[in-house]
Amino acid sequence: MKASSQEDTRKILRFGEKIREVRERKGLTLKAVASQAGVSESLVSQIERGRVYPAIDTLLCLARVLDIRLQYLFEEYDRHGPVSVIRADERRSIHEESVVYEEVARPGEQDGKNSIESYLITIPPGEATHRGHYGHSGKEMGFIVEGKAILKYEDEEYALDQGDSVSFSAGAPHTIENAGTSPLKALWVVSPPQRFA
Fold this sequence. Notes:
- The chain contains 6 helices and 9 strands.
- By secondary structure, it is an alpha+beta fold.
- A 6-stranded antiparallel sheet has the order 1-2-3-9-4-7, with no helix packed on it. A 3-stranded antiparallel sheet has the order 6-5-8, with no helix packed on it.
- Helix 2 (15-25) packs across helix 4 (41-48).
- It is elongated and about 65 Å long.
Protein backbone atom coordinates (compact mmCIF):
# COMPACT_ATOMS: atom_id res chain seq x y z
CA MET A 1 0.00 0.00 0.00
CA LYS A 2 1.33 3.46 -0.93
CA ALA A 3 2.08 5.96 1.83
CA SER A 4 -0.68 8.35 0.71
CA SER A 5 -3.17 5.49 0.63
CA GLN A 6 -2.16 4.47 4.16
CA GLU A 7 -2.60 8.04 5.37
CA ASP A 8 -6.06 8.27 3.75
CA THR A 9 -7.08 5.05 5.51
CA ARG A 10 -5.80 6.39 8.83
CA LYS A 11 -7.85 9.57 8.41
CA ILE A 12 -10.96 7.47 7.77
CA LEU A 13 -10.45 5.12 10.72
CA ARG A 14 -11.10 6.94 13.99
CA PHE A 15 -9.87 4.26 16.38
CA GLY A 16 -8.52 6.74 18.92
CA GLU A 17 -11.65 8.88 19.08
CA LYS A 18 -13.86 5.83 19.46
CA ILE A 19 -11.70 4.26 22.15
CA ARG A 20 -11.65 7.53 24.12
CA GLU A 21 -15.44 8.00 23.75
CA VAL A 22 -16.18 4.49 25.01
CA ARG A 23 -13.61 4.69 27.82
CA GLU A 24 -15.02 8.00 29.07
CA ARG A 25 -18.60 6.79 28.75
CA LYS A 26 -17.71 3.78 30.92
CA GLY A 27 -15.95 6.04 33.43
CA LEU A 28 -12.59 4.26 33.10
CA THR A 29 -9.21 5.94 33.49
CA LEU A 30 -6.36 5.63 30.99
CA LYS A 31 -4.41 3.78 33.66
CA ALA A 32 -7.16 1.21 34.26
CA VAL A 33 -7.62 0.46 30.55
CA ALA A 34 -3.87 0.28 29.92
CA SER A 35 -3.37 -2.07 32.87
CA GLN A 36 -6.13 -4.46 31.75
CA ALA A 37 -4.89 -4.40 28.14
CA GLY A 38 -1.27 -4.99 29.16
CA VAL A 39 0.07 -1.83 27.52
CA SER A 40 1.40 1.48 28.80
CA GLU A 41 -0.84 4.37 29.80
CA SER A 42 1.21 6.58 27.45
CA LEU A 43 0.45 4.30 24.49
CA VAL A 44 -3.30 4.38 25.14
CA SER A 45 -3.15 8.17 25.43
CA GLN A 46 -1.30 8.49 22.11
CA ILE A 47 -3.75 6.13 20.38
CA GLU A 48 -6.71 8.16 21.68
CA ARG A 49 -5.16 11.38 20.37
CA GLY A 50 -4.46 9.86 16.94
CA ARG A 51 -0.69 10.18 17.36
CA VAL A 52 -0.13 6.42 17.15
CA TYR A 53 -2.04 3.82 15.14
CA PRO A 54 -2.19 0.59 17.13
CA ALA A 55 -0.94 -2.81 16.02
CA ILE A 56 -3.82 -5.22 15.47
CA ASP A 57 -3.08 -7.21 18.65
CA THR A 58 -3.10 -4.00 20.73
CA LEU A 59 -6.36 -2.90 19.09
CA LEU A 60 -7.95 -6.29 19.84
CA CYS A 61 -6.86 -6.08 23.48
CA LEU A 62 -8.31 -2.58 23.87
CA ALA A 63 -11.54 -3.66 22.17
CA ARG A 64 -11.82 -6.63 24.56
CA VAL A 65 -11.16 -4.51 27.66
CA LEU A 66 -13.71 -1.88 26.61
CA ASP A 67 -16.19 -4.43 25.21
CA ILE A 68 -16.17 -2.73 21.78
CA ARG A 69 -17.44 -4.64 18.76
CA LEU A 70 -14.90 -4.74 15.92
CA GLN A 71 -17.65 -3.76 13.45
CA TYR A 72 -17.95 -0.47 15.33
CA LEU A 73 -14.23 0.21 15.06
CA PHE A 74 -14.13 -0.52 11.33
CA GLU A 75 -17.49 0.93 10.21
CA GLU A 76 -15.92 3.98 8.53
CA TYR A 77 -13.67 1.72 6.45
CA ASP A 78 -16.70 -0.21 5.20
CA ARG A 79 -18.59 3.01 4.60
CA HIS A 80 -15.85 4.50 2.39
CA GLY A 81 -15.76 1.49 0.09
CA PRO A 82 -17.84 1.29 -3.09
CA VAL A 83 -20.85 -0.12 -1.21
CA SER A 84 -22.22 1.38 2.01
CA VAL A 85 -24.43 -0.79 4.22
CA ILE A 86 -26.39 0.43 7.24
CA ARG A 87 -27.61 -2.51 9.30
CA ALA A 88 -31.15 -2.29 10.65
CA ASP A 89 -29.94 -2.47 14.26
CA GLU A 90 -27.23 0.19 13.71
CA ARG A 91 -29.37 2.87 12.08
CA ARG A 92 -28.94 6.36 13.54
CA SER A 93 -32.09 8.31 14.39
CA ILE A 94 -33.02 11.89 15.16
CA HIS A 95 -36.12 12.93 17.11
CA GLU A 96 -37.81 16.21 16.25
CA GLU A 97 -40.39 16.38 19.03
CA SER A 98 -42.65 13.40 18.16
CA VAL A 99 -41.31 12.96 14.59
CA VAL A 100 -38.57 10.35 14.10
CA TYR A 101 -35.99 10.32 11.28
CA GLU A 102 -34.13 7.00 10.79
CA GLU A 103 -31.07 7.17 8.54
CA VAL A 104 -31.11 4.73 5.59
CA ALA A 105 -28.41 6.30 3.37
CA ARG A 106 -25.43 8.13 4.81
CA PRO A 107 -23.81 11.09 3.03
CA GLY A 108 -20.20 10.41 2.03
CA GLU A 109 -17.47 13.05 2.25
CA GLN A 110 -16.09 11.87 -1.10
CA ASP A 111 -19.44 12.34 -2.89
CA GLY A 112 -19.07 16.11 -3.22
CA LYS A 113 -21.95 17.75 -5.09
CA ASN A 114 -23.57 14.33 -5.60
CA SER A 115 -23.93 13.75 -1.86
CA ILE A 116 -27.36 12.63 -0.64
CA GLU A 117 -28.94 11.45 2.56
CA SER A 118 -32.03 9.34 2.95
CA TYR A 119 -34.18 8.53 5.93
CA LEU A 120 -37.42 6.92 6.97
CA ILE A 121 -39.71 9.48 8.60
CA THR A 122 -42.34 8.35 11.10
CA ILE A 123 -44.96 10.97 11.96
CA PRO A 124 -47.73 10.31 14.53
CA PRO A 125 -51.34 11.26 13.67
CA GLY A 126 -51.94 14.99 13.77
CA GLU A 127 -48.23 15.83 13.82
CA ALA A 128 -45.94 17.37 11.18
CA THR A 129 -42.28 18.03 10.38
CA HIS A 130 -40.84 21.43 11.24
CA ARG A 131 -37.27 21.76 9.99
CA GLY A 132 -38.18 22.52 6.36
CA HIS A 133 -40.47 25.33 7.47
CA TYR A 134 -38.06 27.98 6.18
CA GLY A 135 -36.68 26.07 3.21
CA HIS A 136 -33.05 25.24 2.39
CA SER A 137 -30.86 24.72 -0.67
CA GLY A 138 -31.18 21.55 -2.76
CA LYS A 139 -33.87 19.07 -3.76
CA GLU A 140 -36.04 16.55 -1.96
CA MET A 141 -37.91 13.44 -3.01
CA GLY A 142 -40.37 11.51 -0.86
CA PHE A 143 -42.25 8.23 -1.12
CA ILE A 144 -45.23 7.44 1.13
CA VAL A 145 -44.69 3.96 2.55
CA GLU A 146 -47.72 3.88 4.88
CA GLY A 147 -50.52 6.29 5.69
CA LYS A 148 -51.78 9.59 4.34
CA ALA A 149 -49.83 12.84 4.14
CA ILE A 150 -50.20 16.45 3.19
CA LEU A 151 -47.18 18.23 1.74
CA LYS A 152 -47.46 21.93 2.50
CA TYR A 153 -45.27 23.74 -0.02
CA GLU A 154 -45.33 27.54 0.09
CA ASP A 155 -49.09 28.32 -0.01
CA GLU A 156 -50.13 25.04 -1.68
CA GLU A 157 -51.17 21.69 -0.19
CA TYR A 158 -50.69 18.30 -1.88
CA ALA A 159 -52.54 15.21 -0.61
CA LEU A 160 -50.40 12.07 -0.76
CA ASP A 161 -51.51 8.47 -0.20
CA GLN A 162 -49.61 5.24 0.28
CA GLY A 163 -47.49 4.56 -2.82
CA ASP A 164 -47.45 8.21 -3.95
CA SER A 165 -44.17 10.03 -4.47
CA VAL A 166 -43.24 13.69 -4.68
CA SER A 167 -40.16 15.73 -5.59
CA PHE A 168 -39.47 19.44 -5.30
CA SER A 169 -36.92 22.19 -4.91
CA ALA A 170 -36.25 22.53 -1.18
CA GLY A 171 -35.72 26.31 -1.34
CA ALA A 172 -39.33 27.12 -0.51
CA PRO A 173 -40.91 26.53 2.92
CA HIS A 174 -42.28 22.98 3.16
CA THR A 175 -43.59 20.56 5.77
CA ILE A 176 -45.06 17.06 5.77
CA GLU A 177 -48.15 16.48 7.87
CA ASN A 178 -49.80 13.21 8.87
CA ALA A 179 -53.34 13.47 7.51
CA GLY A 180 -54.46 10.02 8.69
CA THR A 181 -55.34 8.23 11.92
CA SER A 182 -52.32 5.91 11.99
CA PRO A 183 -48.57 6.65 11.95
CA LEU A 184 -47.29 8.02 8.64
CA LYS A 185 -44.12 6.40 7.27
CA ALA A 186 -42.31 8.07 4.37
CA LEU A 187 -38.97 7.40 2.72
CA TRP A 188 -37.19 10.69 2.04
CA VAL A 189 -34.13 11.60 -0.04
CA VAL A 190 -32.41 14.97 0.34
CA SER A 191 -29.53 16.56 -1.59
CA PRO A 192 -27.39 18.11 -0.28
CA PRO A 193 -27.67 16.42 3.14
CA GLN A 194 -29.34 18.39 5.96
CA ARG A 195 -30.13 16.34 9.07
CA PHE A 196 -27.39 13.74 9.42
CA ALA A 197 -24.51 15.61 7.74
